[in-house]
Amino acid sequence: MNQNMQSVFRSSHKRMIRISDAVRSVPPSGIRRFFDMTTELEDVISLGVGEPDFVTPWHIRETCIHALESGYTSYTTNQGLFELRKEIADTFRRDHSVDYDPDSEILITTGVSEGIDLVMRSILNRGDEVIVPEPCYVSYTPTVVFAGGVPVTVSTRIENGFKVTSEQIKGKITEKTRAILINYPNNPTGATMEKKDLEEIADVAIEHGLIVISDEIYDKLTYDGKHTCFSSLNGMMDTTVVFNGFSKSHAMTGLRIGYALGNRDIIGAMTKIHQYTMLCAPVTSQMAAIDALRNGREEMARMVREYDRRRHLIINGLNKLGLDCFWGKGAFYAFASIENTGLTSDEFAERLLLDKHVAVVPGNVFGNSGEGFLRCSYAASRDDIKEALLRIGEFLESIQRVVQYNVA
Amino acid sequence: MDLVRNILEIIENDPKIEISEIAALVGRPDADVMDCIDQLEKDGAIRKYKTVIDWDKVNNGYVYAIIEIKVSLERETGYNVVADRISRFPEVRSVRLISGDHDISLTVRGRSMKEVAFFVAEKIATLPQVQSTATHFVLKTYKEDGVMLHEPEHAERLPIVA
């Protein structure tokens, strides 16, 4: 190799690194682009965040401090502290009448996101399909792809309260289908499913021998009606993997702590991957989680009451501005239709951000059926919500003027 | 959520809030909220719409003291009688019956330590039912009625995250 060629080789070296097909096939999160834009603007009011605006309740933070002071800084068992698993088992027995063995049916993860990744890698062979109703949280379909599976999306509609129906699922089942992934209360729509709705899904799952992966991270944030844990449905205990955690209910997003509940074979498989890749969830966060379960009900209830007030404030506010807003009964998202503005979700969100410095997330980020909607998080202070509503109102007026001008 | 509790929690945190905003937060018509508040005022559940002031911020500081009192009770006069008597002084900001070594705890406010000390010595200690008093001057108030009197924490949140 002569010198010239060597330098060519070196300068192009960076470009020659090969990234796997699976990773390349997944587009970067659509949220990322908006994040980069907001960092350049000042005075931005953000309804774009999928995390509580509350700080973790003090008693939980205090437990973290105490744990550090006492020197709890080492690994725990791979599955997580037994004390925490026991506390989770007790909680589910009390709240949902389901019985999980803390020894073999519970795994502590670093948030639900890790758990979803683990379950996909545990159950999917190359080419296996997972049915995923959309709009949905941005990580589901990539996680399926990374595990070598094929996500098969189903579009839920506002007319049906963004619930997925058994008919829709049946229409997508093939011999390769392994699992259904559901998330109610739902991010980004705020939709919830009642027990009878879930039972229909359970019937399909049983009939076709499918695993149900149920992300119930928003279960505590159910404002109307009562949340039903999917594994509490008849016959679903063994074939459901339930995911939950502390991020939303106890404002602990940054502590990265969640858990998976399921039959011992699946949890065992997930634990195997977890032990080789994560070892264990951070011990400080595990201690915090124990305290959250033992002493956190009151503070959690206080936050839920405040979210409920903001839910009324923002949904009524958006409706008054003429943006049809879905009355979600859970999570902390208002999903507003912008169909009558003639703009796409991306256009609306981008111009709203640049013109009025209000950050929302365009609905298409959560799947094609989210096009025509905006996700507005009401995990923001009332003052911010009121100011955002004012600015959105101004923005709507300004685009209406343009429309009228064009027509004239 | 129970409407009464919901409204009370909102007003307790923000007495200046407008009826229409409360109505928006609880998802009920203005009239319902107004009726509910009227009733709560009539029943005496809502006693007063209060402001928490950090007087030190306006260079107009008061001196506060917590006074613990031991009381000797006579046959006819219960705690209520002496508590009522003490409550009438405008210098006295709060009066509580407490458990433990003492019987009654007061918060007294004055312009100077001397003023407070003389008030206790002359007006409180001299009451026939009062056996003894212990005066603790307040040096600094960190939290008042649920409100932190220093800058609250502000952890940065990223503006857009899934």
Summarize the helices and strands and which ones pair or pack:
The complex is a heterodimer of chains A (408) and B (162).
Chain A: H1 3-11, H2 21-25, H3 30-38, E1 45-46, E2 48-49, H4 58-69, H5 82-96, E3 106-109, H6 112-123, E4 129-134, H7 140-146, E5 150-155, H8 166-170, E6 177-182, H9 195-208, E7 211-215, E8 240-245, E9 258-261, H10 264-277, H11 283-295, H12 297-320, E10 325-326, E11 333-337, H13 345-356, E12 358-359, E13 361-362, E14 373-377, H14 382-407
Parallel strand pairs in A: 1-12, 4-5, 4-6, 6-7, 7-8
Antiparallel strand pairs in A: 3-9, 8-9, 10-11, 11-14, 13-14
Helix pairs in contact in A: 4-11, 5-11, 6-7, 6-10, 12-14
Chain B: H1 3-13, H2 19-26, H3 30-42, E1 63-71, H4 79-87, E2 92-97, E3 104-110, H5 113-124, E4 130-137, E5 143-144, E6 147-148, E7 160-161
Helix pairs in contact in B: 1-3, 2-3
Features of the shown structure:
heterodimer, A: 408 residues, alpha/beta, Aspartate Aminotransferase, domain 1, Aspartate Aminotransferase, domain 2, 2 domains, 7-stranded mixed β-sheet, 4-stranded antiparallel β-sheet, 14 helices, 14 strands, B: 162 residues, alpha+beta, Arc Repressor Mutant, subunit A, Alpha-Beta Plaits, two-stranded antiparallel ribbon, 33% helix
Question: What would you note in describing this structure?
Answer:
- The complex is a heterodimer of chains A (408) and B (162).
- With 408 residues, chain A is an alpha/beta fold.
- Chain A folds into two domains: 27-55 and 299-401, Aspartate Aminotransferase, domain 1 (Alpha-Beta Complex), CATH 3.90.1150; 58-294, Type I PLP-dependent aspartate aminotransferase-like (Major domain) (Aspartate Aminotransferase, domain 2), CATH 3.40.640.10.
- Chain A is 43% helix and 14% strand.
- Chain A has helices at residues 3-11, 21-25, 30-38, 58-69, 82-96, 112-123, 140-146, 166-170, 195-208, 264-277, 283-295, 297-320, 345-356, 382-407, and strands at 45-46, 48-49, 106-109, 129-134, 150-155, 177-182, 211-215, 240-245, 258-261, 325-326, 333-337, 358-359, 361-362, 373-377.
- Chain A has a seven-stranded mixed β-sheet, sandwiched between helices. A four-stranded antiparallel β-sheet of chain A has the order 10-11-14-13, covered by helices on one side. In chain A, strands 1-12 form a two-stranded parallel sheet.
- With 162 residues, chain B is α+β, with helices and mostly antiparallel strands.
- Chain B has five helices and seven strands, in the order αααβαββαββββ.
- Chain B has helices spanning 3-13, 19-26, 30-42, 79-87, 113-124; strands spanning 63-71, 92-97, 104-110, 130-137, 143-144, 147-148, 160-161.
- The longest helix of chain B is centred in the first third of the chain and has 13 residues, at 30-42.
- Chain B starts with a helix and ends with a strand.
- Classes of the chains: A alpha/beta (408), B alpha+beta (162).
- Chains A and B meet through helix 3, strand 2 and helix 12 of A and helix 1, helix 2 and strand 7 of B.
